[in-house]
Specification:
- There is one protein chain.
- By secondary structure, the protein is α/β, with parallel strands linked by helices.
- About 35% of the residues lie in helices and about 20% in strands.
- It has eight helices and eight strands, in the order βαβαβαββααβαβαβα.
- α7 links the parallel β7 and β8.
- α2 packs across α3, α6 crosses α7 and α7 packs parallel to α8.
- The structure holds S-adenosylmethionine.
- S-adenosylmethionine binds next to α1 and β8.
Length: about 260
């Protein structure tokens, strides 16, 4: 299988062409269903049911493409009252093995609702192969969260720890990350922005790739958009394949990769 390239096409047609168990991690940030109402790619289904049927079709392919010890990450947004992702999670968990539900805390709300709390998170459903169980590849040490110097200094005062050097080294490694990932969403003026309406921050995708793959492993993004997964995977020394149906976004992602390779 050719890696480190973008395949232009519909995920439902492209994924069936790829070989079984080819990917250590799969990231999917699919259309949400009528959340981005100005985008044709998010409003293309006549009903929720049609969207759910379509979703099951491509997720089944992704699960076929996932290695036995691999992880599949599927983004979904709820914040604007759309509950379709809850139905999707329910159907996916009935058919596949639930592994985790990660919350992406976007830090800044969308400021869209006057009648409820301001939406500020997205969800990432994590599935594994049913036989994967406790042998899933998950590298907790790769996504530790550093303590700040003040916290380290305070913890070092704890009299229970006699070996201060060992304690310091332990604290320097940081703490295990929770499944609540706080990564600010990209501001309009961010240098990272490529012009895609739902571009994910590289720092968020980095956590998903770091926790689920080693250098040299291969990552698939079934809805590549502006190429965030490809850019992060390339930077981290992973192999990658991206699928994107819109030639304009393929061009955007290719330009992003070309810029990365020149650096
Ligand atoms: C939520 S966006 C992904 C954004 C991406 N994570 C990023 O950081 O830029 C979803 C993408 O799926 C693409 N798309 C929609 N339907 C598709 C299909 N059937 N096959 C492949 N890509 C599709 C859209 O063009 C859009 O770029």
């Amino acid at each position: 299988m050719k890696t480190n390239h973008i395949i232009t096409g519909d995920a439902c047609h492209v994924l069936p062409e790829l070989p079984d168990a080819a990917f250590q991690a799969i990231i999917a940030d699919p259309p949400y269903y009528n959340v981005l109402t100005g985008e044709a790619w998010d409003t293309q289904w006549p009903s929720e049911e049609a969207y759910l049927t379509w979703s099951l079709q491509w997720v089944r392919e992704c699960m076929r493409l996932l290695k036995d010890d691999g992880l599949f990450f599927c983004f979904g947004q709820l914040g604007k009252r759309e509950h379709v992702f809850i139905h999707l999670m329910s159907r996916l968990c009935a058919e596949f093995q639930f592994h985790d539900l990660v919350i992406w805390d976007r830090a800044v709300g969308y400021n869209e609702r006057r009648d409820s709390f301001t939406p500020a998170y997205e969800m990432i459903l994590v599935l594994r192969q049913s036989q994967g169980g406790d042998r899933v590849k998950f590298i907790k040490d790769a996504v530790r969260v550093p303590y700040d110097e003040q916290t380290i200094a305070a913890y070092l005062k704890d009299p229970r720890y006699k070996n201060k050097a060992a304690r310091h080294q332990h604290l320097q490694a940081g703490k295990y990350a929770t499944n609540l990932l706080r990564v600010p969403s990209l501001k309009g003026a961010s240098k990272e922005k490529c012009g895609h309406p739902s571009q994910k921050p590289a720092a968020l995708i980095e956590k998903l790739i770091l926790c689920s793959t080693d250098v040299g492993d291969t990552v698939l993004d079934a809805f590549l958009g502006s190429g965030t997964t490809a850019a992060v995977a390339q930077t981290l020394g992973r192999q990658w394949v991206g699928v994107e149906v819109n030639p304009h976004y393929v061009e955007m992602a290719n330009q992003r990769m070309a810029g990365l390779l020149q650096m």
